Structure to design on (276 residues):
DNA sequence: CTGTAAATGAGATTAGCTTATCATTATCAA
DNA sequence: TTGATAATGATAAGCTAATCTCATTTACAG
């Protein structure tokens, strides 16, 4: 599944991807994004750079970036998946009920795991705040 | 939309529902449930009481119970909706990655809203823990 | 008991998101 | 420059959850 690689000194390196303007565009959008973006948002934004960009291509690009660990999937109930750079550190999200955009929320109360019943093994958790973002609240 | 009513001394009372064994079964299952149940789980459980129970009927029963406020919807990313009695008070959920069942988690750290960026208006929040439930962890 | 209309159940249908197909285009090693 | 082949884009197809259709059954007021 199309995997970009930066190791360049070995013949064993698997080169399964090529550099294209559509992938670059998707990557660039995510690079500069301040919040998690859905495929549709990515498509809209990246289309401005690459005319005629298709949805399938965005899905493929996103799949590749997830596979290489450069971005992560953000799951919010009732919402399509969003994607954001994986190097942001542990944090959570805010979902605006009006404009439907997702935002990052810094920090986390990590004694959350203590809430779990005895004998339950907590591996991860997710916190989502809902309401109105700054723009929509005014 | 099929609304059961218990007020019986007024002619203005809207009677839009009849008492049936399938609705009773669904209600009874939810009554005794210790955790949020999906439509499939409800169908399976209630089918033992009412032979031949159909999915559509469960959806309709659940819809009515939500409408009358007796149960609430529990949304978990990537999971079908679960339902639980509405009188449980504020709490959150644990999703077992192995058996795929959802469980209740008592309590809540309600300073969560403080995590939101300035000017954001937080109306509600949801916390979901992931991992292995007691049964699956052993 | 009876008639009427709500409720049921089987299956078709919709809706939203994601993946697969395939002819065409474009990358890149040689 | 060129050839193989990965990537693209349009769209069909898939998936899952939930709703709708409609002939039949059933509740229940009178």
């Amino acid at each position: 599944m199309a995997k970009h690689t930066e190791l360049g000194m070995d013949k064993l390196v698997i080169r399964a991807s090529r550099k294209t303007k559509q992938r670059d565009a998707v990557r660039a959008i995510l690079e500069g994004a301040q919040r998690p973006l859905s495929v549709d948002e990515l498509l809209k934004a990246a289309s401005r750079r690459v005319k005629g960009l298709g949805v399938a291509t965005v899905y493929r690009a996103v799949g590749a970036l997830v596979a290489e660990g450069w971005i992560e999937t953000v799951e919010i109930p009732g919402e399509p998946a969003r994607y954001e750079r994986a190097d942001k550190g542990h944090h959570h999200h805010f979902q605006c009920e009006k404009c439907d955009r997702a935002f990052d929320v810094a920090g986390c109360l990590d004694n959350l795991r203590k809430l779990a019943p005895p004998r339950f093994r907590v591996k991860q958790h997710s916190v989502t705040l809902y309401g109105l973002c700054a723009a929509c609240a005014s």
